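Spend some time on the protein that follows and explain the fold to me:
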Amino acid sequence: MDTQMTFQAQIQQGIPSELPAPKPYPEGANRAPKRKDILTPAEKQLAVRNALRYFPAEWHQELAVEFAKELNDFGRIYMYRFKPEYAMKARAISDYPAKCEQAAAIMLMVDNNLDPAVAQHPEELITYGGNGAVFQNWAQYRLTMKYLSEMEADQTLHLYSGHPMGLFPSSVDAPRVVVTNGMMIPNYSKPDDWERFNALGVTQYGQMTAGSFMYIGPQGIVHGTTITVMNGFRKVLEKGDSPKGKIFLTAGLGGMSGAQPKAGNIAGCITVCAEVNPKAATKRHEQGWVDELIDNMDALIARVKQAQANEEVVSIAFIGNVVNVWEAFDEHDIFVHLGSDQTSLHNPWSGGYYPVDISYDESNRLIREEPELFKAKVQATLKRHADAINRHTAKGTYFFDYGNAFLLEASRAGGDVMAANGIDFKYPSYVQDILGPMCFDYGFGPFRWVCTSGNSADLDRTDAIAADVLERIMATAPEEIQQQMQDNITWIKDAKENKLVVGSQARILYADAEGRMEIAKAFNDAISRGEIGPVVLGRDHHDVSGTDSPFRETSNIYDGSRFTADMAIHNVIGDSFRGATWVSIHNGGGVGWGEVINGGFGMLLDGTEAAERRLKSMLLFDVNNGIARRSWARNEEANFAIKREMARTPKLKVTLANRVDDDIINGLEF
């Protein structure tokens, strides 16, 4: 039985040789919402048939009844019975049974994504975003880990939306794993299609870094949110004025959105973050990511006024609906400097966003039992939400869409969020106003790493290495990128003090191609000298090149190509033959299935010359593929950055856009 086997033996076993006993659902777990009951009786039979193919025929009678009940109760077949007995967490790379160190590194990253301290709904294998899954079920997890334990250096594991298709012969230079998630045929890519095929067990939503095993807890989004909030305040405050005592009002304390209060603290403001799920809010408070919990509006009003008067730096979680907060702050004339929203509106009908004036539990009942009524109430709330924001922006609040599809879904609901031309939104995406021109166009994006030893001393050493590299680069960097360099030097020097680690010993900062390559080489050299253990490199898909997302990552592309996805596809293909240890490509991620195509990678540094060759080749392309596309879209900052890179890299030759005089275009008659 599992309980009598070592961790290594359980990994190598895969599907157990004996049928495990059923498991009760753990008390206190943050259960995923019940999904829409969308399958016909015949389709439910097919879903159970699909699930049973992982198991021997003699188990089918018992499991068929159990899986049918799961499907009826939850809308999905998660196979709770087959969850392993061992604690789900990232262990040291040496603890994993593997013939190939690269495979062991991937196992570590998989387990980190399912760690209850990291994952939003760990029992359902969902890491963040309400439905961002690592696997569809526990059989897929078990088989994948078994394959990785058997993998040799010239094999590649192919994963189809969580399903391990198998190990295939390849080469030592090929990726060890290739991941796809949710890649639907376009004519079968509507919301009900995704629900249906996910329920059938043939596809899944991998979010950005859940299904590609690169989620590092909320630290990743803490950094991006910190950079966004800092630069947001720079846009609205007089030079030299401090964010202390100024309000940043937002919503969402789940997986990614849970980082907002911590980011607000680092940026130095008052953060008020509403969350309807008491468990999510309490979890973030217990983890130290938010300072105070308040569930009463009068108490919130009094506390915020006190914080304003004292010019405090504090983060407050309000357990309730953010619409009520916007409305109450308007009524009590509390001025909001920055406003946003980071609820999971990519998933509006299945628990990503909750209607106002209805309890959390009642809303979850409606999702399952009265989905059309739930949808109507969500859309009514979105209109009310937009109206409240409009009243604040009329007073001077700077509101930005945080790429969670708030403006998109509010517009679909009939909310007053459209510009006068009826085409654009009246509020910018944060990428349009902040991260696009200030970061992505220059090549700055989320470079992250995980110390696979699990040793915090290794993380301390890599922090110091990264800070030294960035300070050396900054000494000769052009003025255009000095601010970004300094923000990230400050970030990495303060990272340990800010207690950002949840799960694996991981870190993130924003760097351009030069910074990423130099830091990675310095890590590889330190590994070679025996100063630290192996390091996994990666990034969020929310980056310069990896993602085509017209309302977020590529929202500042104005040549008409923001609805194309060539860049993301080239990114994942290009990374795969330049040295990535694993690559992934997803339909959906961040803003929802059907709204974005995004690609990611992971790379193991092991101190060898081969690793140095791979990091130089792959990281150069991974960043500059996106800068080239942004330059071709006539983005001035990207044009500057790609010319600078071509001067530094003789074999890089990029097609540059010729400028057209506005008078020529404006004089045309059509």
